[in-house]
Amino acid sequence: MSAPIDKTFIREYDKNDGNVLKIHQSEIGDVGCVVWDAALVLSKYLEKQNDEKKLDLSRKTVIELGAGTGVVSLVAGSLGAKVTITDLPEFLPLISLNIQENKALLTGEIKAETLIWGQVSDVMKKTEWDLILLADCIYYEESLEPLVRTMVELCGPRTTILCCYEQRDTGNKPELEKQFFELVRKNFEVSKIPLEDQDNEMSSADIHILLFTQRIVHS
């Protein structure tokens, strides 16, 4: 289901520098139509890393997969990154609305593009991405393999992937997480960002931030 932009409500995101991003959410739609907690946790982590001079996003090439409302990308864009926000075509109107709404705070270049996992364009493959962002993308079993394949196709030797997800114990979610990380570890080195390195207020024991880097294959 698409994200209608004629019926939206705004969630304000208070940045550490005192500015406020206004994020439109859709009253009707699928999982991509609202701001999820994992997106907020990842956004605040980016801000903290920037504030502590541990991660300089200025002019870095960033792509977000399954961006939904685009809040994580908008935070990165407000920190000077050159961001490509991607999701299924039905979510692009909502993402574009949020870009327009927050244009005054976006110091980096930012654009929205369709990306169906497993169908990466040659232009995206050839781009040297510094950072790939994912927030709460472990949701549907049929999307796991295409998602990991997309990550592999976009990732270069200097690319860092930050994956934030909320651990869920209901239904098939534990099995989905297991399958996802089995696929990830075949291609990437995985490390966990400790809670003490995350935002003091916007963090949680059941929301994890993981860092993936390309696995070096020795001949």
Automatic annotation (TrEMBL):
Transmembrane segments: none annotated. InterPro entries: Methyltransf_16, SAM-dependent_MTases_sf. Signal peptide: none annotated. GO terms for cellular component: cytosol; protein-containing complex. This is Protein-lysine methyltransferase METTL21D. It comes from Lottia gigantea (Giant owl limpet).
